[in-house]
Write the structure tokens for this entry.
Amino acid sequence: MSQTTYHTCPLCEATCGLEVTTLDRTVVSIRGDTHDVFSQGYLCPKAYSLKELDADPDRLRQPLIRRPDGWQTATWDEAFAEIEHRLMPIIQKGGRQAVAAYIGNPNAHNLSNLLYGPVLLKALGSPNLFSASTLDQMPKQVSAGLMFGHGLNIPVPDLERTDFLLMLGANPLASNGSLMTAPDMRGRLRRLRQRGGRLVVIDPQRTRTAEEADEHYFITPGSDAAFLLALAHVLFDEDLVNPGRLAGLANGLDEIRALVRPFTPESVVMACGIPAAAIRRLARDLAAAPRAAVYGRIGTCVNQFGTLASWLVDVLNFLTGNLDREGGAMFTNAAVQPGMLTYEAGKGRGVKFGRWKSRVSGYPEVFGELPVNALAEEIETPGEGQVQALITVAGNPCLSMPNSARLQKALDSLEFMVSVDIYLNETTRHANVILPAPSALERSHYDVALYRLSVHNVANYSPPLFRRAPGQPDEWEILLRLAGLFAGQGPNPDVAALDDNHIRQLVEKEVEQAASSIFGRIPAEILAELSTRRGPERMLDFYLRSGPHGDGFGAKPGGVTLAKLEANPHGLDLGPLTPRLPEALRTPSGKIELAPSVLLADVERLQRWLSQVQPGQLVLIGRRDLRSNNSWMHNLPVLVKGKPRCTLRMHSADAAHLGLIDGEMVTIASRTGQVEAPLEITDNMMPGVVSLPHGWGHNLPGVQLRVAAASAGVNCNLLADEALLDPLSGNAVLNGIPVTVSKPASVA
Ligand SMILES: Nc1nc2c(c(=O)[nH]1)N[C@H]1C(S)=C(S)[C@@H](COP(=O)(O)OP(=O)(O)OC[C@H]3O[C@@H](n4cnc5c(=O)[nH]c(N)nc54)[C@H](O)[C@@H]3O)O[C@H]1N2
Ligand SMILES: Nc1nc2c(c(=O)[nH]1)N[C@H]1C(S)=C(S)[C@@H](COP(=O)(O)OP(=O)(O)OC[C@H]3O[C@@H](n4cnc5c(=O)[nH]c(N)nc54)[C@H](O)[C@@H]3O)O[C@H]1N2
Ligand code: SF4
Ligand SMILES: [Mo]
């Protein structure tokens, strides 16, 4: 008998609701759930690939142990025994810092891993923690932490009501939106324009999003901070600053006024490539719009001034009175906010960075982690504290991080490596043990991270679609078993007891927080109410019920519980965004910190750069494609069929200048390496800028991705330079890489 159930798509940040029809263990169809409270039937081509992903013969279904004569399948007990046997002596000898961890992007889309990943890392107790965050949004977390007191206090554009959206460094028509959870971006942007609103896109490529916009400006990669400073300059210069309701709630307005004074539009034109007149007009339009939002995404983050640009986006939102106002840039009030409610409302401890430093280059820690760019050198450099073992969880740094050739070599020199993953791929081929995670359709789902950045308050839970294969643990059980092992409990710790212990600690801590809805309650009573559940469901129920929309364990009847979500498979609509300041602030002052001193100081570095800008150097940036997802969905025929997509895009003027012809293979070279890719000439590129997507380059020895190997592409991160990063956030520079492009040596 066929069955129809509802499931949130776990693949990207859009959180689309899917209607899935199954027959026994087979997916018959995947459609958009027209009743989903948020996505209302929208989906993208990746949704259907969930079926292929689940059925993929290359997806690992048993643990693997590397033996001298190759990979061997193993039982779970054998795999954990091997980890205990190999890893614990490394810790005994080299201390906990000898084991590093790398946490990849799919963790952000995985309920088990979001809730239990931190437990694993705490048990590991190593200062050498790395994640894809420093390849991505860390600059935004740092700026949000400094301004609003918490790294997840990130304003999102109120898309449903804004009249003017100034979008920098994002292509949501391909990416489906990021740090802005909103299914059906095309529909939302069209509705914005239909109601008379305007969309302006700032991007070195004329993207699909730019094509939908009222205006698009090319911008030189890495220059957004300068452009935003000039916008702020015009606002002050023309007396257009009007913070409105928040005027009295911010420190530092005078400092900002003084800071932006030298940044006339004329002074940044050379660096940005945007005419001064256009900068002036955009600033006036931004100020004049009844409700406007400035939004910057990965293009503004992954360059050497990522934190400055991320900060200035919100400074502009403040200066124009659009921060925390309907139709402006607002703070989501998510149903689940671990760690957010535990302070006095409206005040907090704020953020502190650099509590420890990386051993070799001395990079400061941010939010408990070190820059990914430091991983290879921490492995390579001998001496006390050297990293000798690595654990990766849902990460593929061998394709995703700068100078990945260096990392690949470094991984081979490790004493031991364990990966929790679904594939034997470019990274896990270096492991000694691979622990397979269950299929995406075999796990429950709730977007703990993404609903925090949602353009509408929603909550939606999906139970697993399929039962796991016999013997296959859930991913949280894998992580807790590793945590127990690291805590010294041996290869077969009592996972259920670890889980009980963890939830008890959470509850005990929460009832002590004065701002909590369960302040002063008796932990045993709360635990009794949760007693029918285990694992992520128990934790989720706890967070939901003690959260801002929750039932407060009886204190607020009718509030959200997991049972209520289970009864509403299309999700719960918790209403449009509402103003949340000052309550959402977690700064020690209880105010918005507009001008944190570290940010002011960093502007000097930007000024030095501006004075040295030299036009004429060809630079490389990336791009995303709707039918792809970072590095790991190229083994699914439905997504990779069609024309090759890993091409080097270049403007026709650059191609003519270099004597290159459309379609021919070209060599792209940088300080760190070189690759060959077919040339695609298109005037959608800014002259002087070329683009190559990331996540390709699958034809490496030992990789077991048969479909991906056939359309392998090249790894653009062989060209990105690990020596370059944004010093405040430690974020990698992935765009604006100086390159040369030429006919391959054999041809020239
Ligand atoms: N040049 C350049 N480089 C970039 C970027 C760029 O724009 N340009 N973007 C950067 C960004 S934004 C990001 S987020 C990073 C991503 O960098 P990573 O997180 O390192 O890489 P992913 O490609 O997301 O690979 C995810 C891994 O998780 C595995 N996986 C998938 N699902 C599951 C699961 O359910 N459980 C487990 N355990 N494993 C799973 C996959 O097999 C794969 O090995 O790449 C960054 N690299
Ligand atoms: N289909 C698909 N969806 C995805 C992903 C995917 O790989 N494929 N990855 C997911 C992940 S991990 C993330 S983080 C999000 C990212 O989501 P987005 O931020 O929307 O990412 P992109 O589509 O890469 O768009 C970034 C844009 O920035 C531009 N850009 C590059 N450098 C600069 C610069 O210096 N300044 C400015 N102003 N623009 C610049 C690029 O040309 C590009 O058009 O997407 C997520 N969704
Ligand atoms: S847009 Fe994202 S969440 Fe929606 S169906 Fe596509 S991959 Fe899934
Ligand atoms: Mo990302």
Remarks:
- Residues 76-94 form the longest helix (19 residues).
- The chain has a mean pLDDT of 97.
